Structures are given as structure tokens and as C-alpha cells.
From TrEMBL:
SUPFAM superfamilies: (Trans)glycosidases. InterPro entries: GH (IPR017853). It comes from the Eukaryota. Residues 1-22 form the signal peptide. Gene3D superfamilies: Glycosidases. This is GH18 domain-containing protein. The keyword Signal applies. Keywords: Signal.
Length: 365
């Protein structure tokens, strides 16, 4: 028996005892935990970033108003590691979450849990009883935090190899988050995933209090280290959003948010700057350019949403919950020795006022 098994025995016991008093909420009560509205990722590493980024989102929300505001904030919490005896939320995560809750129109703050399934988060190496025990321990810790309304998992790759064990974890964690013996108030479970990977099994495991956060960036790259053109980006996004709509409709749950590159990603960027010689650059394309909308990424992405979700792309609701803003990040996105800019969403001139007028809307306008 490996050392993990000894550590986990306690969790397994709690799991067995837990079943008797479990009260999983019916779908109509659990569904209220799912946030509706635009979201954003924030990978906070310092108090200074908490203050600065809070100010930026406050400025945006004040300008945008309640309908187009960024309502859901995902704050980095921890990396999933199967050797941990018990998860730790992170002190800065809770400080940030508490602080961000007072931003106007923010309704939900969730914790980001990252994990590499092919590495330290390899759920395949555990028995299914242990996978469930892990889900129980995560649920206990995150339900206990009054600063957090849910969890966004980024467990990669969600591929055939890891699917079964990942779904066992997701199903169990989501159930726990809507079980009133674990969570006094239900919390949401979001799962970050590629557009072609989000399948009915995933939506079903996420359940009524869950949804997929679909990557609407890094869909394709012309050549390692080089930018996708906005036109090809638009073509690829269109094909992929159609796939998402079709597969989401095969689950009775099937809700999703779409992440878009408001700041540089690996394949969508304005400039790549050599990390060893800043004079060496790879030119890309603007995330937004008021004078050349069709040659910039975000206007093209909004055009795709308009085309696929209808003029009603402006109306946030089922199955579309809004866009997720990539991203407020501490670290640079670096590909092949080049760091990508713009680093933050509002580093692009005019982006804030453009978003305030065109982001998907909570009600039709
Ligand atoms: C629950 O939260 C309280 C107060 O923040 C803390 O003291 C306690 O250790 C937490 N319990 C668990 C199981 O995380
Ligand atoms: C998939 O996971 C379940 C536990 O949820 C387990 O009972 C089953 O044996 C697994 N199937 C495969 C093919 O590994
Ligand atoms: C949990 O839900 C069950 C069924 O809806 C209900 O009977 C019970 O009172 C609830 N418990 C708490 C602590 O809210
Ligand atoms: C817009 O960008 C494209 C591609 O770079 C360029 O060919 C075109 O001249 C630009 N249009 C304007 C009005 O700047
Ligand atoms: C959405 O599409 C309609 C036509 O279907 C068009 O009139 C409208 O301007 C478009 N809105 C945006 C923001 O692209």
C-alpha cells in the first residue's frame, strides 16, 4: 500500500458515513448556484494586483452598467496534486475574493483549481473510491469558505485517457456542492475545456449547478510561435461554437460560458517580444482596433457570437451564460522564447469602452 492510501483512509471513511445524511438538492434548487453573466480570470499573486485589478474592473463595471458588467470572477486558488493530504485554498485567494466581492455588480467569486492529469493530478492512478474521497475533501474545504461561491476546474487534458476518472471526480464534487449536508448554500462547479471536448458526459457530470467554460482562443496556430490572423481566428471560432451548441444540446444541463482573448493568448497576440533580446519582435494583430474592426480579434469574436447565438447573443441565459475575459495574469504568456502582449485586457486602447457597449448582455437591449 502506498503512503497516499494511508492518508486517504480517513476521507474514505467520511465518505461512507456521509452518505446517510446526504441531501442532494433537486435540480430546481441546485440550479440557482449557476452564475449568469460575463466572467473574468484573475491570477493574483500580490496585494498590489488585487488593488489595481479591482480598480480596473470597478471602472469597467461602472462604465458598462449592470447588464454588460463582469459579474463572475475566477481567482486562482491552487494546483490539484494527488499527493496532497488536504487541499488549501490559499490565503491570498481568500483575501482577493473578499475584496473583489465589493466590486459593483459582481455576484459570484469562484476559485480556480488547475491540474495536469498527465502529471501531478493523475486521477487514473487512484481507485474510484479515492477519487471520490478527494472530491469530498475539496468540497468540505471550499464549501466552508464564505468568500467563494464555487470552483472552476482546469484539469488537462480532458481526453479519452483521463475522461472516466475525471468525470468521477467532477460528478462527485458537483453533487457535494449541491448537497446541503456539505454546502449550506449550493455552490457552482465550472470546468474549463476545449470546444470539441465538451461532451454530454461532462455536462451531465457537472449537473444543474455546473457549466463548461469553453476556450474560445488558442484554437489553432498557423505555425509554432506565430499569431493566428483575425480572419482565420473568426473562421475557426465559428466552426467551434457551432460544435459547442450541438453538443451542449445533447445534455439536459449543457450550459456554457465562452472564454475570449481580450489579452494575449498563445496564438492570438498583438506582439511577441523576445525574452532575451527585446528588440526582436514578432508582429501579431490587435485584440481590438477601432479603425479596423475586421482586422482585430475581439470584434471578430463578437461577430461569431452574433451569428451563432443569434442577435440574442446579447441575451445571457441558457445555454449561453456570457463570455469569460482572458485574463488578468501575473505571468507572461511565453511561446518559443517570445512573451506576448497585451498582457492585460485594458492595456489595449479603446478596449474598455468598446466592451462596455458590446459585451453580451443580461437582458436584451
Ligand atoms: C472552516 O473555516 C473556519 C473559519 O475560516 C476555519 O477555522 C476551519 O478550519 C475551516 N474548516 C475546514 C474543514 O476547512
Ligand atoms: C469508470 O469509473 C467508475 C467509477 O465512477 C468505475 O466504476 C468504472 O470501473 C470505470 N470504468 C473504467 C472503464 O475504467
Ligand atoms: C437539506 O435538504 C433536505 C431535503 O430538501 C431538507 O429536508 C433538510 O432540512 C435540509 N437540511 C438543511 C441543513 O438545510
Ligand atoms: C486593416 O488591416 C488590414 C490587414 O492588416 C489592412 O490590409 C487594411 O489596410 C487595414 N485597414 C485600415 C482601414 O487600416
Ligand atoms: C448582429 O447581427 C445582426 C444581423 O443578424 C446585425 O444587424 C447586428 O448589427 C449584429 N450585431 C453585431 C454587434 O455584430
Amino acid at each position: 500500500m502506498d503512503p497516499n492510501a494511508v492518508k486517504l483512509r480517513g476521507f474514505t471513511l467520511a465518505l461512507v458515513l456521509g452518505i446517510a445524511s446526504s441531501a442532494i438538492l433537486p435540480d430546481n434548487l441546485a440550479v440557482v448556484a449557476t452564475p449568469k453573466g460575463n466572467g473574468a480570470w484573475l491570477y493574483v499573486e500580490t496585494q498590489q494586483q488585487i488593488d489595481l485589478w479591482k480598480q480596473q474592473i470597478t471602472n469597467y463595471n461602472t462604465l458598462a452598467g449592470p447588464q454588460r458588467a463582469i459579474r463572475v470572477l475566477y481567482v486562482y486558488s491552487m494546483d490539484f496534486d494527488i499527493t496532497y493530504q488536504s487541499p488549501v485554498i490559499g490565503k491570498l485567494t481568500e483575501i482577493a475574493a473578499k475584496s473583489f466581492r465589493s466590486i459593483p455588480y459582481v455576484t459570484h467569486v469562484g476559485a480556480i483549481i488547475d491540474g495536469i492529469l498527465s502529471g501531478s493530478a493523475n486521477l487514473n492512478s487512484l481507485t474510484s473510491a479515492k477519487v471520490k474521497a478527494f472530491a469530498d475533501s475539496y468540497a468540505r474545504v471550499y464549501c466552508n469558505s464564505s468568500a467563494l461561491d464555487g470552483i472552476q476546474l482546469d484539469l488537462e487534458p480532458y481526453s479519452a485517457t483521463y475522461k472516466n476518472s475525471t468525470l468521477t471526480f467532477v460528478r462527485r464534487l458537483s453533487q457535494n456542492l449541491r448537497d446541503n449536508s456539505t454546502c449550506a448554500k449550493p455552490k457552482f462547479l465550472a470546468f474549463f475545456v476545449g470546444p470539441r471536448q465538451a461532451d454530454a458526459d461532462l455536462y451531465d457530470a457537472l449537473g444543474p449547478n455546473g457549466y463548461a467554460v469553453i476556450s474560445g482562443y488558442d484554437l489553432d496556430s498557423p505555425k509554432a510561435g506565430y499569431p493566428e490572423t483575425p480572419k482565420t481566428y473568426q473562421t475557426n471560432l465559428l466552426t467551434n461554437v457551432k460544435v459547442v451548441l450541438t453538443s451542449a444540446a445533447t445534455s439536459k444541463y449543457g450550459k456554457f460560458s465562452i472564454g475570449l482573448p481580450f489579452a494575449a493568448s498563445a496564438c492570438e497576440f498583438q506582439t511577441g517580444i523576445s525574452t532575451t533580446n527585446p528588440a526582436k519582435t514578432i508582429p501579431g494583430y490587435p485584440m481590438y482596433d477601432a479603425n479596423n474592426l475586421t482586422n482585430s480579434y475581439i470584434p471578430n469574436a463578437f461577430a461569431v457570437l452574433n451569428q451563432t447565438l443569434g442577435a440574442g447573443y446579447e441575451k445571457v441565459g441558457n445555454p449561453f451564460l456570457g463570455v469569460s475575459v482572458w485574463a488578468w495574469v501575473s505571468r507572461d504568456v511565453v511561446v518559443s522564447g517570445y512573451r506576448h502582449v497585451p498582457k492585460l485586457p485594458f492595456d489595449t486602447s479603446g478596449m474598455m469602452s468598446y466592451m462596455a457597449k458590446t459585451m453580451p448582455c443580461k437582458n436584451t437591449v
